[in-house]
Specification:
It is built from 15 helices and 14 strands. By secondary structure, it is of the alpha/beta class. Helix 14 (about 400-420) links the parallel strand 11 (about 380-385) and strand 12 (about 425-430). GO terms for molecular function: beta-glucosidase activity.
Length: about 475
């Protein structure tokens, strides 16, 4: 079961019990107060891209409800709130003139958090790119983005640096790039653009690195890192070819990102493979030095953990990376994916899945913390973990989401064990605080502790209702996790 059965008494006293959100998914106010149009504002208007053509035009209207939402966080006892800034609210054109009203909005959010003793944790980029930069030079496809991103990041450091101690440069770089350039499910909606995909990632790495260095040059003494969507892997059995498939999966799907953040270098075997295929990115002189320098300045590894996967050798004529993703909540509609000649990811027969076919594996959270601890020796911020589900509001406006409580409780128990086993974990942020727009999945896939009255069609009262999980997490925070073991 464990290295040895240990009784976890409680989480560290200064542990940051948190919750998270992203600007596009909660704010709404998509054209208000000078905000520019983003790539997501454009993408969701393409027919057939999102569930029931849902958009973030209104989302859950956090733009007008932020005081109410943060007051609910305070009532819960939240220690940290992770949110993202919309680049297009700060620079409507992505560069050029700063939008003062945008700056003021996030200043208000930060001040509101601090008023209640909630530590603001700011994500600089959570997928919503000013459309103007896409039109100008192709967004992340051009190295020009590096300078624009760093200017934007510097603006945030300059205005909020005295009040914000935790910074996340990029959210799930591995996801927005793969869904954007390999599977066409996210903007810019390109399919199988392998060479571009790796080039885009190199630009994103350089943007991250230069922002980290800018933060330190400006005297930033806080914590800074990136948030990686980490899907730890298990070999399907002890057949060496399947163990090697896991090795290849890890190098191509996990270490490709984490090694750059933590060491400032690309994994050798993965790079050798990409060179052979002709997909390796162009790397300018001096880039690797900058990545290395930034790696010595980050102070944590951010992890968004939802599921683990299984690896098995995939023959040359086997499954491809391009199957159907479940965005409807109809169980069993996702397809098996893989890279031909390398690995495939079959279902794990030992684990349950959500209605969206995501594997539920609490121990995987501990597994990934242990892996990061031994491979990188960095402290960890769990920047997302949560359960998307169909929640029903009953008479009397109650929402009984015991399945969410069970999910979070089991994951937290494993996180507690990881701490006992020597992992340094600073924060745990659930996804999410209120219900929100789940990108492609609409509003029916709910993640929050707070139910928001709206559905796929715009409308609904947008009233906030506390779910059972709200009171449960409130108690977890109050007891520093002691109640997990009762």
């Amino acid at each position: 079961m464990d290295m040895e059965e240990m009784k976890v008494t409680r989480f560290p006293k200064d542990f940051l019990w948190g919750s998270a959100s992203a600007a596009y998914q909660i704010e709404g106010g998509w054209k208000e107060d000078g905000k520019g149009v983003t790539n997501w504002d454009t993408f969701v208007r393409i027919p057939g891209k999102t569930y029931k053509a849902t958009t973030g035009d209104v989302a859950v209207d956090h733009y007008h409800h932020y005081k109410e939402d943060i007051a609910l966080m305070a009532e819960m006892g939240l220690k940290t709130y992770r949110f993202s800034v919309s680049w297009a609210r700060i620079y409507p054109e992505g560069r050029g003139t700063v939008n003062e009203k945008g700056l003021a909005f996030y200043q208000d959010i930060i001040d509101e958090c601090l008023k209640y003793g909630i530590e603001p944790m700011v994500t600089i980029f959570h997928w919503d790119l000013p459309q103007a930069l896409v039109d100008l030079y192709g967004g992340w496809e051009s190295p020009n983005i590096i300078e624009d991103y760093v200017r934007y990041a510097r603006t945030l450091f300059e205005h909020y640096g005295d009040k914000v101690k935790y910074w996340i440069t990029l959210n799930e770089q591995n996801i927005f790039t793969s869904l954007g350039w390999l599977t066409a499910q996210h903007p810019p909606g390109k399919f199988d653009a392998q060479k571009t995909f790796y080039q885009v990632n190199h630009h994103a790495f350089m943007a991250h690195a230069k922002a980290v260095l800018a933060y330190r040059e400006m005297g930033g003494k806080g914590e800074i890192g990136a948030s990686f969507a980490y899907t730890p892997s298990y070999a399907i059995d002890c057949k060496p070819i399947n163990a090697m498939a896991k090795r290849d999966y890890d190098e191509l799907k996990n270490f490709w990102w984490m090694d750059v953040y933590a060491y400032g270098r690309y994994p050798k075997a993965a790079m050798a493979y990409l060179k052979k295929k002709g997909y390796a990115p162009e790397i300018a002189d001096g880039d690797m030095d900058i990545l290395k320098k930034a790696a010595s300045e980050i102070t944590f590894m951010g992890v968004n953990y939802y599921q683990s996967c299984v690896c098995e050798y995939n023959p040359m004529d086997g499954v491809t990376p391009y199957g159907t993703m479940n965005t409807t909540g109809v169980k069993g509609s996702a397809q098996e994916l893989g890279m031909q000649g390398i690995y495939k990811n079959p279902a794990n027969p030992y684990l349950m899945t959500t209605d969206w076919d995501w594997t539920i594996d609490p121990m995987g959270l501990r597994f990934c913390c242990r892996e990061i601890t031994s491979r990188y020796g960095l402290p960890i911020v769990i920047s997302e973990n949560g359960l998307g589900a169909f929640d029903k509001k009953t008479e009397g406006n109650q929402i009984h989401d015991e399945y969410r409580i069970h999910y979070l409780k089991e994951h937290l128990k494993e996180l507690g064990k990881a701490i006992e086993e020597g992992c340094e974990i600073w924060a745990y942020c659930t996804w999410s605080f209120t219900d929100l727009l789940s990108w492609l999945n609409g509003y029916q896939k709910r993640y929050g502790f707070v139910y928001v009255d709206r559905d796929e069609e715009d409308g609904g009262t947008l009233n906030r209702y506390k779910k059972d999980s709200f009171y449960w997490y409130q108690d977890v925070i109050k007891t520093d996790g002691e109640n997990l073991y009762k």
